[in-house]
Specification:
Number of strands: 3
Radius of gyration: 19 Å
Helix content: 40-55%
Number of domains: 1
Strand order of the largest sheet: 1-3-2
Strand content: 5-15%
């Protein structure tokens, strides 16, 4: 008797959903919301800060932890890491001319600002934008350095 098995691969055209956290358009919208909300007059954020903000926005169940740290109510460093899906979203946003990259900074373009205004006007991502306005503004360059300690 032989122990060899014959297997036949099955290829299906059945669709399967991609979790929202992995969808590039959703992440691009988070990037646009971050730069649009916190970019100031010059309309830019460092790549590190933008990556960190998207990481935080995706993890809504940890928003209290991030808020407590950024407001100085906790000294425990929150968990933040690099995220290749966000970097892919940055690449797509750059290719689509929604963002520009210059000297390690993501600048929001006019097209990106149009998208940002669409998010605001249509009340899309209200919780995320509120988080950015209330907590994200406390994410200083010093805090980015403390949290990442060379990770990003």
């Amino acid at each position: 008797m032989s122990n060899d098995f014959i297997t036949k691969p099955v290829i299906s055209k059945k669709a399967y959903s991609i979790p929202i956290e992995m969808r590039p358009l959703w992440r691009i919208s988070l990037l646009i919301a971050s730069v649009g909300t916190l970019g100031g007059e010059n309309r830019y954020l460092s790549v590190k800060k933008a990556n960190m903000l998207v990481w935080m926005l995706i993890r809504q169940n940890r928003w209290d932890e991030y808020e407590n740290y950024l407001y100085g109510r906790s000294m425990d460093l929150p968990l933040v890491s690099t995220d290749t899906a966000t970097y892919k979203a940055v690449e797509i946003a750059l290719a689509k001319k929604l963002l520009d990259l210059e000297s390690g900074r993501l600048h929001i373009s006019d097209a990106g600002m149009k998208l940002y205004h669409l998010l605001l006007e249509n009340d899309i991502m209200p919780k995320e934008i509120s988080f950015l306005e209330n907590v994200g503004k406390k994410l200083t360059d010093k805090k980015v350095k403390e949290i990442t300690e060379g990770l990003i």
